[in-house]
Specification:
Radius of gyration: 19 Å
Strand order of the largest sheet: 1-5-6-15-12
Strand content: 15-25%
Length: 278
């Protein structure tokens, strides 16, 4: 893959270039949107939401039921069943990539992603797309990894007002988009927000948390926070008992926690041996 070639193969509205010349990311199938996982447990493409009745180009914030739901989590966009136009301001994430990004080889972190244009705070950048898995398949894939394997599986947990916890597992290892190349930072410039469009299966949308300059690497906190806490005594003991060292963090932030975030929820207690974030 030559430098400047579109890693998305023309599937994005904006080309995603690669640097440096002669370097090639490991093969994977590019998909701008999440797809059903191999286990067939969840179909993120299924349309289950009713549409709004707004017969206008852009929905009014005071009356559109999709926008009114934004007053509380989770967030909803107008969807394929809505009667508003494609230019509706409540259609953002579903439009896909709109900013110029480049996949590049970093000094210590493997591949990363940088902005090729300035991005203002609050702007949608890209989605973290991949196979949407059920818990059993996500656990099976995690447990099959070796210590040397990169882990792209992300587990997102949303605590709803009802007390219910919704879990979403996305794995872009084999099928994914540019989001799979994003690195972790303990002081990230992106924030991940679950956004619903057609169903309760969320799109994992990444927005600019600050103003970002052209050429700056794009990163988010794999733990889902804007900080990365150091290991607790219990976590350290579990890691030592499993004879496993957490992967080091090379983000270079002043507040760097030295290790990547670690989530043992997909492991039986005796098998805690890897982090469950990319």
């Amino acid at each position: 893959m030559a430098a400047g070639r579109d890693v998305s193969g023309g599937l994005e509205a904006v080309a995603v270039t690669v640097w440096p010349p002669g370097e090639t990311p490991a093969p994977f199938q590019y998909s701008p949107d999440s797809v059903p996982g191999a286990d067939g447990a969840i179909d993120p493409t299924e349309v289950t939401f009713p549409g709004c009745p707004c017969l206008v180009g852009s929905c009014p914030a005071h009356s559109c039921p999709c926008i009114l739901q934004r007053a509380a989590e989770p967030l909803f966009e107008c969807n394929s069943m809505c009667r508003c136009g494609e230019g509706c301001e409540n259609r953002v994430v579903q439009r896909g990539l709109q900013v110029r990004l480049e996949v590049f080889k970093t000094a210590k972190k493997g591949w990363g992603v940088r902005a090729l244009e300035a991005i203002t705070k609050g702007r949608f950048v890209c989605e973290y797309a991949g196979e949407v898995l059920g818990f059993a398949e996500a656990r099976r894939r995690i447990l099959s990894q070796t210590a040397q394997d990169p882990n792209y599986i992300i587990a997102v947990r949303e605590h709803l007002h009802s007390g219910q916890v919704m879990e979403t597992f996305v794995d872009p290892t084999y099928i994914g988009n540019v989001g799979r190349f994003l690195n972790h930072s303990c002081e990230p410039n992106l924030v991940m927000v679950p956004v619903r469009v057609d169903s309760m299966v969320p799109r994992l949308a990444l927005f600019a948390a600050i103003d970002i300059a052209a050429g700056e690497e794009l990163c988010y906190d794999y733990s889902g926070r804007f900080r990365n806490l150091t290991l607790t005594e219990g976590e350290q003991q579990a890691s030592e008992e499993g004879n496993v060292l957490r992967k080091p963090c090379f983000c270079g932030a002043q507040t760097c926690a030295a290790f990547l975030p670690w989530d043992g929820s997909l492991f039986p207690p005796a098998d805690m041996h890897s982090e469950s974030s990319p």
